[in-house]
């Protein structure tokens, strides 16, 4: 029983109870409510910081609450930066590494860029790869597609050009082979048809010149001249006709 007229001083346990309550608040409130966690007396070197009890020190109390004995503290890490717990002094923040980004303040870790995007160190967002380029997850740069391949905006892979089409190193799309040329899948250039052979646009193979026509130039067929003929496919020249008396050879002739 406490003697009359004497005031009971707070026990050490009362201080412990306050600390336990503050720890509970630290675990349950969001970073926007708890902007700062005191980890040493040096953390009180900001305007508005004070001790609840100088015997205990600021490091034992949570900063960021508008209650007696606590402090507001400085803000968390800026976008594009991170810290071990997201709630440290700005001078303790580190920039996100290339291939990652930090879009929010109070970031504990930086997020990896998704496939089809990239970032440089200290980025708050990831940038999309342009057409003709690609990237995997966590990329610090985009890679150009190989010749014979193409990609659209923000692609994670490159796609081979279909047969009859081609793409050079600097192409962002595939283009069709012109008449007289052909290609297979994934071609960086189109190949010209041989003498006596030809093709249409976007051809995958060449076709021989038809009887009555010839191909003296690669990839191009033309009719036999009057007085000449050819009756075979793939001719490179026409034969002069030895017409019987009273007969003649027309243009595009496959016979005398």
What does this molecule look like?
The chain has 256 residues and is mostly beta strands. The protein has one helix at residues 12-28, and strands at residues 36-37, 62-63, 81-82, 94-95, 100-101, 111-112, 117-118, 127-128, 133-134, 143-144, 149-150, 159-160, 165-166, 175-176, 181-182, 191-192, 197-198, 207-208, 213-217, 220-223, 228-229, 239-240. The strands form eleven sheets. The protein has a two-stranded antiparallel sheet with strand order 1-2. A two-stranded antiparallel ribbon has the order 3-4. Strand 15 (181-182) and strand 16 (191-192) form a beta hairpin. It is rod-shaped.
Task: Please render the helix and strand layout as text.
Elements (H helix, E strand, L loop, with lengths): L11 H17 L7 E2 L24 E2 L17 E2 L11 E2 L4 E2 L9 E2 L4 E2 L8 E2 L4 E2 L8 E2 L4 E2 L8 E2 L4 E2 L8 E2 L4 E2 L8 E2 L4 E2 L8 E2 L4 E5 L2 E4 L4 E2 L9 E2 L16
Antiparallel strand pairs: 1-2, 3-4, 5-6, 7-8, 9-10, 11-12, 13-14, 15-16, 17-18, 19-20, 21-22
| Biggest sheet architecture | 2 strands, antiparallel
Return the average pLDDT rounded to an integer: 75
Rg (C-alpha, Å):
40 Å
Portion in beta strands: 15-25%
Which of globular, elongated, flat, extended, rod-shaped describes the shape? rod-shaped
Ends distance = 139 Å
Regions with little confidence, pLDDT below 50 for 5+ residues: 1-43, 45-74
Order of adjacent strands in the largest pleated sheet: 1-2
Structural classification: mainly beta
User: Given the structure, what is the number of helices?
Assistant: 1
- The percentage helix is under 10%
